[in-house]
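Input chain follows. Return structure tokens only.
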Amino acid sequence: MDGATHFLTCRPPAVSTEMSLNVLAYNLKRVMNILGASGLIKAMSA
């Protein structure tokens, strides 16, 4: 994601966690670009 070619962690469980956090951050940024910050907050509180 975003040009990353390696992980900061080495063990498989840690790499899995790191990848999950990367995907979560990517998806949140994408939703914020589509809905805006206030739209995201409104959708999360519903």
